[in-house]
Design goal:
alpha+beta; binds pyrrole-2-carboxylate; 20% helix
Length: 313
């Protein structure tokens, strides 16, 4: 399997450019289902130890069904498939440019949750336009064992998010273990209480907001991803969900910039436009850098040929 690794504002992406599963043709959502059902061992092979690590997000480069698109992509992580991935799309853009497959300008991309686009602004800087995003519930309260009631909004930004300002500690890198435990407890409590997104979708990303570290940023966040890793970037889909909540509250105007810091201090700049249906169309700008090119090897008698799968995690 040929892969190209990159990081977007610190968050890693591994793009499979050859040797991935053959998922056939048709809508990306159906191909993702096939990937999940028949080839989960290759997901685990590509991103889990000993070839990867928990924070690594994978992307399977696919032929788009829509010929106006530059690419199709299915994102996944250490435990399964994810919907859209903002940092991953920025990584995809920079990787395709690194391969000489695209030049500067606008490009459309198919994902299982809809069409997105990106503008390659320079070798490393990319602006993505994400799927329509919206707030699903305002001020939902979940009773978290050992913590008490936690209030937050539920929003869609290409994945489902619970967004809360109730931080248990300052949002600094030294607090990552505490923030991880706190966010995991919220996620478990949401699940146990049956608090979900639209159509009963599990809320599998938790965002905790606090004060920014830099005077020219608007906010800092800690984002817990499904599988227990935290996002080193400010999370593109998470920032989209945040923009949807700010827009719904009238706290950000269309075209107004919002600078979101991650827990490691890296930044995305976001803005939005209203869609015709009253949702938002978010744009997120960030930087990605290629970090490696590799061939991953799967030997038949390797006991960990499919990665280390912690099924009881
Ligand atoms: O940037 O959207 C994102 C993302 C999702 C999971 C990790 N990063």
């Amino acid at each position: 399997m040929r892969v190209i690794d990159s990081h977007t504002e610190g968050e890693p992406t591994r793009l499979i450019i050859a040797g991935g599963p053959d998922l056939g043709h048709g809508p990306l959502a159906e191909r993702r289902e096939r990937f999940r059902r028949d080839f989960d061992h290759l997901r685990s092979f590509a991103v889990n130890e000993p070839r990867g690590y928990d924070a690594l997000v994978g992307g399977l480069l696919c032929e788009p069904a829509d010929p106006s698109c530059t690419a199709g992509i299915i994102f996944f992580n250490n435990v399964g498939m994810i919907g859209m991935c903002g940092h991953g799309t920025i990584g995809l853009a920079v990787t395709l440019a690194h391969l000489g497959r695209i030049g500067p300008g606008a490009h459309r991309v198919e994902t299982p949750v809809g069409l997105v686009s990106f503008d390659l602004l320079s070798r490393n800087e990319v602006r993505i336009t994400n799927v329509e995003s919206y707030r699903f519930a305002k001020a939902a309260v979940v009773d978290v064992p050992g913590i008490g009631p936690v209030t937050g909004d539920i929003a869609w930004g290409g994945n489902w998010f619970f967004l809360t300002g109730n931080a248990p500690c300052p949002l600094v890198s030294g607090s990552i273990p505490q923030l991880t435990a706190h966010a995991t407890a919220i996620q478990t409590a949401l699940d146990a209480a049956g608090i979900r997104g639209a159509d009963g979708a599990p809320i599998d990303h938790i965002e905790i907001f606090g004060k920014p570290g830099e005077p020219d940023s608007d906010s800092r966040s800690f984002v817990l991803c499904p599988g227990g890793a935290y996002d080193r970037s400010p999370c593109g889909t998470g920032t989209s969900a945040k923009l949807a909540c700010l827009a719904a509250d009238g706290n950000l105007a269309p075209g107004q910039r919002w600078v979101q810091e991650s827990i490691i201090g890296s930044r995305f700049t976001g803005e939005f436009a209203w869609s015709q249906g009253g949702r938002i169309v978010p744009s997120i700008t960030g930087r990605a850098y290629v970090t490696g090119e590799a061939t991953l090897i799967r030997e038949a008698d390797d006991p960990f040929r499919d990665g280390i799968r912690l099924v009881d995690r």
